[in-house]
Each structure stands twice: as C-alpha cells, then as structure tokens.
Specification:
- By secondary structure, the chain is of the alpha+beta class.
- It folds into 3 domains: 156 residues, Malonyl-CoA decarboxylase, oligemerization domain (Butyryl-CoA Dehydrogenase, subunit A, domain 3, Up-down Bundle), CATH 1.20.140; 134 residues, Aminopeptidase (3-Layer(aba) Sandwich); 113 residues, Aminopeptidase (3-Layer(aba) Sandwich), CATH 3.40.630.150.
- Helices cover 55% and strands 10% of the residues.
- The chain contains 19 helices and 7 strands.
- The strands form 2 sheets. A 5-stranded mixed β-sheet has the order 1-2-3-4-5, with helices on both faces. The protein has a two-stranded antiparallel ribbon with strand order 6-7.
Length: 414
C-alpha cells in the first residue's frame, strides 16, 4: 500500500507541477517568494520552492545581488509590529500574545528559507546560496542581517546531533574520494597515488563529517598518521618512501590536516566535535595510543614578522624561538591569539607542545612560516582545564619547552 501511495503521490505531483508551470513562469522571483510564504498546500509549496531555487540558480551575479537586496529590504522584520506585539505581551502575557510577538520578531526570510528547504537537494543549494551571499556581503554591509539569518538556520540544521562521522578509506566511493582531493586545504593531494598513501596504509586514517541531506558531500575531514613518538616534519609523514607501521604498534595519533569543505557553512564550527569524536574512536579501537597531537601550520607567522619589522633568522633555533614568541605573545585587538590555527586548537583545549624548524618545505609552508610547524597536544586529562583557561581571558596553555623558547627570544631582544 505504501508503494502505491508513493506512486500516486509522484504522479499527482508531476501533473500538478505541469499545470502550475505556465503561471510560475510569468511571476517574478519576488512574487514567487510571497506565494511560497502564503502557501498552505504541501505540493504547491514544493513546486514553488523548486521553481524559486531553479530561478535563482540561473541568475547572473547582478541579479543575485538584487535578490539578496530584496531579502534584506522586504523580507526582514516590521519594527512597528514587533513593538506593538511586545506591548501586547507585556500587557497581557499569554500563549497567544507571546506567539504574536515571536512571529513578528522573526524575519520573513527565515521562514522563506525553511520552506525552500522542503524539497530534495535544497539543503546543499541553500549552503551554496549562503556562500554566494558571503561574497556579496564583504562589500555590501547592508546584507549582514541576511547572512545572520542564514547562519542561524544553518547552525540548527547542521547541529552535531545530525552529523554522521564516517571513515574515509581506499574503498570509499570515488565521488567522495575526488572531493577529498579537491577540498584538501593544508597539504595538497597531487594525485590518486598521493591520496592512496594517505588513506590505504594501516598507519593512516581519515575521518569526515557528513549530513544526511548531503550524503556525498564531506563537511570537514581530518587526516591522521599513526606513529611512534611525536613527529617534527610533514615531509616524513607524507613521504612515499616511508616505512609503514603496524597500527597496533603506534603510540601516537597525529592530526596533520583538517580541512573545511563547505565555504557556505563558514562560522559554523565542526572541528571541535570532530577531533573529540576521532580521539574517542581511535582510543577505543587502538588502546595502545597514548598521545594525540597535531602537526599544524603557522599561517600568520611571516606576515606578523613583516608587519613588526623583525627578522626570522636562518638558524633553526632562532626560527623556533621566533615562532614560539609569535604563538604566545602575538594578539588581536580582543586579546585572543593572532594565529587562526592557534585560536582553533587552544579554544578546543589543546596546549602548544613544541615547534619545529624545517617541518614544511613546500612553497606554501615556506611562504607562511619559513617552514616552521607546531604541535598542539590534546592531553585528555587537561583538555577541560585548558579550554576553561582559554575561554576566561584567552589564556594560552604551553609546555615549559615552548615557554623557554619564547623567553629566550625575549631575552635576545633585550
């Protein structure tokens, strides 16, 4: 019975869509948005939503900018209605008066986005829409409220409870593997053989978060090397001549690359829960692992040195000292660490464990940090304490070794 019900529903929807198409074609996208908000029928709403998304997808840049301007100007809140309904609620608190206020206080564009999201494939298209919105908002600050509403909704739709952690290996679908190659943002994957070296050996792991509405689109992924001891060079980790280690012989898990895949989800953090989940899963599967550490880039180091008129130095120890000083002392106006990767890991409860000269000799590594990289240590006994210290005044947790390196540089300067 369910099969025949679904079949009849599909036939009815196709016929209904065919009947509606001529009228929909005559209406502007602004009119269609109004129609969708006023629609009470499930099928008619789905047809209209699909038409709006198709119409938007076919627009050029100037038309898309105009559409976002419409969302900003005509799909916001009515301030007079908000004031009046708030007065009504304060005068006569009730479920009805509260509902009136809540409805008035929510921008129409939020409900519009929810209704657009009712059709298959809409979630990915809305993520792409927000990516394009972010591009326009950089030079059009009036679109900021529109982006705020997009981020608010996407944060709910991509809540951790909806995400699925999946291991990525050489047997994963080719479509997913191709996207891992394309989205790798830290250490470029330059061939299928290079990808194989990162996901097939017994001492390599890769994990990614997926959303049920985008089953073949990774949201974020982490590449992990299983080693003995804490490594100080990415060249060694990625070498095609390295000796493979049996997974059960490893004592250290090294997170050497974390890549966000969907720029339309900017500002929605997955990395914190990703690392914690991977640590938990690896600890369960490989009880011999004792240390969980990153081998991370220092993307802002050379820019900071140039801006402050300092010199990096050529000796490895000088470079380590300079990097340690940057990580511990360079701040933004709000007091948080200047380096974005440092903010991410320190905010997650890691500590700065060590810095290494000559660790990334790729063109990008040399341009960003003269080849210096840093280990952030996730000590499970200290994660909560480090996180609290960072949250309460941006306290930077660091090993005594790193503190000594920074102090040595300060002493040299004086």
């Amino acid at each position: 019975m369910s099969f025949f019900a679904d079949l009849l529903s599909t036939v009815f929807e196709r016929r209904y869509r065919s009947a509606l198409e001529p009228d929909l074609e005559k209406r502007s996208i602004e009119e269609l948005c109004g129609d969708l908000l006023s629609s009470s029928g499930e099928v008619s709403g789905a047809v209209t939503a699909g038409h709006i998304l198709d119409r938007y997808g076919a627009m050029g840049p100037s038309e898309k900018l105009g559409f976002f301007g419409f969302l900003a100007q005509d799909m916001g809140i009515d301030a007079d209605a908000v004031r009046q309904t708030l007065t009504d609620f304060e005068t006569t608190p009730s479920r009805q008066s509260y509902q009136g206020f809540a409805t008035a206080a929510e921008p129409k564009r939020q409900e519009l986005a929810r209704r657009l999201n009712q059709i298959p494939g809409a979630t990915a298209r809305l993520v792409q829409m927000r990516d394009e919105l972010l591009g326009f908002a950089r030079s059009h600050p009036e679109l900021g409220p529109v982006d705020h509403d997009f981020q608010h909704l996407l944060s709910s739709w991509f809540n951790r409870g909806f995400l699925v952690l999946r291991p990525i290996d050489w047997e994963s679908p080719a479509e997913v593997l191709e996207k891992i190659i394309a989205y790798e943002a830290v250490h470029t994957i330059d061939s299928w053989d290079d990808l194989r070296r990162r996901v097939q050996p017994s001492d390599r792991r890769c994990f990614a978060y997926f959303h049920p509405a985008m089953p073949n689109e990774p949201l974020i992924f982490v590449e992990v090397a299983l080693t003995r001891g804490v490594p100080g060079s990415v060249q060694g980790l990625l070498s095609d001549r390295r000796e493979e280690l049996a997974a059960e012989d490893a004592d250290t898990a090294v997170f050497y690359s974390i890549s966000n895949c969907q720029s339309g989800l900017a500002g929605i953090s997955f990395g914190n829960s990703l690392i914690k989940q991977v640590v938990a899963d690896l600890s369960r599967d490989l009880p011999g692992l004792e240390t969980f550490v990153t081998l991370s880039p220092i993307p802002g180091l050379m820019q900071w040195i140039a801006e402050t008129g300092q010199q990096m130095g050529e000796a490895p120890e000088d470079q380590r000292q300079r990097a340690a000083q940057y990580l511990l002392a360079a701040k933004r106006d709000d007091g948080s660490p200047r380096d974005p990767v440092a903010r991410f890991h320190l905010g997650n409860g890691a500590l700065i464990h060590d810095v290494h000269a000559g660790a990334d000799l790729s063109p990008n590594g040399m341009a960003q940090s003269a080849g210096v990289m840093v280990n952030y240590l996730y000590d499970r006994a200290l994660i909560a304490q480090n996180h609290e210290g960072y949250a309460d005044g941006y306290g930077v947790a660091a090993s005594t070794q790193v503190q000594a390196l920074a102090a040595a540089m300060d002493k040299t300067k004086t």
